[in-house]
Amino acid sequence: MNSNLKNTQLAGWLFALPGTALIFLFIVLPFLFAIGLSLTNQRLISPNPTEFVGLDNYQRLLSVSIVTLSPTTDAQGQILLDDNGQPKYPRLRSITRNKATPEYKGMREWFRWHSGDQAKVVIARDVVFMKALTNTLLFVLFVAPIQAGLALGLALLVNQKLAGINVFRTIYFMPVVVSIVVVSLLWRFIYDGNNGLLNSVLSSLTWGWFTPIDWLGKSETALGSIMAMSVWQGVGFHMVIWLSGLQTISPTYYEAGDIEGASRWQAFRYITWPGLRHTAVLVLIVITMQAFALFAQIDVMTAGGPRDSTQTLVFQAVERGYGKQDISGGSTISVVLFVIVLCISILQRYLTRERT
Amino acid sequence: MASVSLKNVQKNFGDTLVIKGVDIEIEHGEFVVFVGPSGCGKSTLLRMIAGLEDISAGDLSIGEKVVNALPPKERGVSMVFQSYAIFPHMTVRENVAFGLTIAKVPDAEKNAKVQNAARILQMEHLLDRRPNQLSGGQRQRVAIGRAIVREPAVFLFDEPLSNLDAALRMDMRMEIANLHKQLDATMIYVTHDQVEAMTLADKIVVLRDGEVMQAGAPMDLYLEPDNQFVAGFLGSPAMNFIQVNVSELDATHAMVIGPGLAPTRVPHRGRAHTAGQSMTFGLRPQHMWPAEDGKLAGVVGISERLGSETVVNFRLQDDSSLIASLGTDQIFTPGQTVAFDFDPETAHLFADLK
User: Fold this and answer.
1) Chain B residue with minimal CA distance to A355?
2) What does DSSP assign to residue B52?
3) In Å, how far is B142's CA from the nearest CA of chain A?
4) Confidence check: pLDDT of A164 > 90
5) Which residue segment(s) compose the domain that A82 sits in?
6) pLDDT score for A153
7) Residue in chain B nearest A269 by alpha carbon
8) How far is B300 from chain A (nearest CA, A)?
């Protein structure tokens, strides 16, 4: 009996082994490597020996300061105006290349705002990373709620008992099955600035009033375009998760709701939504993590441009690690991304916890 | 005031007719029990009254008004489900108040009604708990609480006690009977348990395959069943049936004879027509007693001594098996030959069951 029990346990471990080994080999180990590499100056291929540099990589990545620029004045103390009638400011390099302020050396302008006559300039040592970070956060902020909400709407629609409803389920799910690279290529044609599908449709809908936009070629529209396409691509997947959640809610609850006189909205509010609590947590966390991992669309559609307006963390990590062969820099970004995603997941878990 | 009337009500799922034209009149304040084996259509019929299933043909009226096309909430009914269907994410108070919340009843009035319902059901101490902290019987109470708080004209119960254990079922049965007295409302109750039917009902409707077999007061059905199905369904142990032949008959009685049954003159209640007719003879187990020269002779199979009664299973010559339930403790040994006698006036004759 005893040996039998031991054998059973051994069998269990053996069954778990292939999966565990693969996870360890391809996820845990590389991640530990990344942490290690981020503390060195390792390059992908380099004749120089690797050196331990401590937190230098993190410091370079995350350094941000605010400097104040006062307007340039003439001898009388009058503020000099430029051709547009705006005050003139000294060039930023007067600070970043000033020997008196060595702490700002090598930093570049990220963005600025004006308060009174003063210009407040936010400078970062790694402006591209900062743009990637804000773009990624923006992407998550828009895509997560919109995708989750649309997916829930679709799930409610296709959860009805109608003839041919499976056709709709299939249609909505189809983009998920197609490779993201293929989808990205297709959408590049759709977004094309000259005679892309979107421009053609918009201008024919408005009888030519609409002037075509190079959706991916302008820094104002590029990120939004990628968001829209990403929502479209992923919404079917989350629809299926919502759908599975919807189908765990017993029909008797809805019958009880009918008897008590609940309207469709009340049935959703009092029966459906509370019943979807666990599904909602899952969907939110999965979408957030997927959104943070935004890479393929960028790589295929814009390569981070124009003017870094679609840089993202993962794209930067890959770009640096392999494009620029700066493997320690790429690793550092990966670790930063991991910490961000972990914090957000914990926060979401806490906010959506079961209150007793 | 709500009477409920069903006139030739039918229901079909595709080509299958599951309710085959049912006529039932329910007076205001009556407690009516639909009873029958599973698949007889009793739950479907209840759901049609509730408005959860469409009515394919016929008229359903609640309080003199045809409600065929009305949604459930406009019929003035409330329902207690077999699975209770109380919401797990709400407290007992929120569950009971659900219908009032939906109807946007002001808080003060809502609280008063919930308190009152809780008092009637003796569950005031449970109001702030969640369903997963409740026992089966307590959940049942919550479900009933949700039903009564809206003060509907008609209560519908769909096998409400079938998920409870035997002892609790008896308690809840009595509570439901009390509730009916207190509320003065019409109640329609579906069960497959003939004990619940007999004890609760003012009127029993026995259903089989989507048809009403007989409707009436419990004791009327018990004493004067119209057909073999009703006779066999009500009473425990079930009525004994054996095949007999009519040898001669007059206006009220028929002389019947069968294997293991000595010639006996029993009332035929108009169901015997000709001599030589093959009929089913029915006799309740409680109406037999052992006697040397009894009309039913056979061999004992099993006997069960329950203390207050003895249930004897014995076989007649043609191997048909009968049960006698005796009101005293008596000892029978398997294989022993026995004879039982009965009062012929307590026996029944039925046309053979299709």
Assistant:
1) B89
2) S
3) 13
4) no
5) 64-124
6) 93
7) B102
8) 48
Is A270's CB within 8 Å of B101's CB? yes
**Could you tell me if residue A288 is inside a domain?**
yes
Which of A 235-294 lie inside 8 A of B, CB atoms? 250, 252-253, 255-263, 266, 270-271, 274-275, 277
Is A132 found in the same domain as A117? no
Asked if residue A142 and residue A280 are part of one domain, the reply reads yes
pLDDT at A1 over 70: no
**A91 with A149, same domain?**
no
- Quick one: DSSP state of residue B293? T
Please enumerate, as own/partner, the contacts of B36-40 that have beta carbons within 8 Å and a separation of 24 or more.
Answer: B36/B192, B36/B206, B36/B207, B36/B208, B36/B213, B36/B233, B37/B192, B37/B208, B37/B233, B38/B192, B39/B209, B40/B207, B40/B208, B40/B209, B40/B210
pLDDT of A3? 57
User: Do residues B32 and B201 lie in contact, with contact meaning Cβ atoms separated by under 8 Å?
Assistant: yes
Q: Is A264 exposed, middle or buried (CB count within 10 Å of its CB: 0-12, 13-18, 19+)?
A: exposed
A227 and A276 assigned to the same domain: yes
**Minimal C-alpha gap between A243 and chain B (Å):** 20
Q: Is the pLDDT of residue A355 over 70?
A: no
Per-residue confidence band for B342, with pLDDT thresholds at 50, 70 and 90:
very high
Chain B residue closest in CA terms to A273: B89
With an 8 Å Cβ cutoff, are A250 and B101 in contact? no
Q: Mark yes or no for CB contact B85/A250 under 8 Å.
A: yes
Query: Minimal Cα–Cα distance from B195 to chain A, Å?
Result: 27
Last residue of a domain, one of A124, A145, A173: A124
Which residues does chain A have within 8 Å of residue B81's beta carbon, measured at their own beta carbons?
A: 252, 255-256
Which tokens in the block code for residue A178? 């197609």
**Range in A61-65, A188-192, B112-116 with the lowest mean pLDDT:** A61-65
A209-225 pLDDT per residue, tens = 777 788 888 888 888 88
CA distances from B182 to A53, A66, B111, B175, B185 (A): 84, 77, 20, 10, 9
**A259 with B52: Cβ contact below 8 A:** yes
Q: Using one digit for the tens of pLDDT, what is the confidence trace for B303-330?
A: 999 988 999 999 988 888 999 999 888 8
Taking an 8 Å cut-off on Cβ atoms, the answer to whether B78 and A252 are in contact is no
Q: Does domain B240-350 have CATH number 2.40.50.140?
A: yes
| Minimum distance, in Å, between the CA of residue B134 and any CA atom of chain A | 15
Whether residue A147 contacts residue A233, with contact meaning beta carbons closer than 8 Å, is answered with: no
The verdict on whether omega for the bond into residue B237 sits within 30 degrees of 0, i.e. cis, is yes
- The structural domain count of chain A equals 2
The number of C-beta contacts closer than 8 angstroms across A and B is: 59
Q: Note the CATH number of domain B4-233.
A: 3.40.50.300
Pairwise CA distance, residues B191 & B29, whole Å: 19
Nearest to B79 among A259, A263, A275 (CB): A259
Contacts of B103 in chain A (CB under 8 A): 261
Query: What confidence score (pLDDT) does residue A191 get?
Result: 87
Distances (CA, A) of A353 to A66, A280, A350, A356: 38, 11, 5, 9
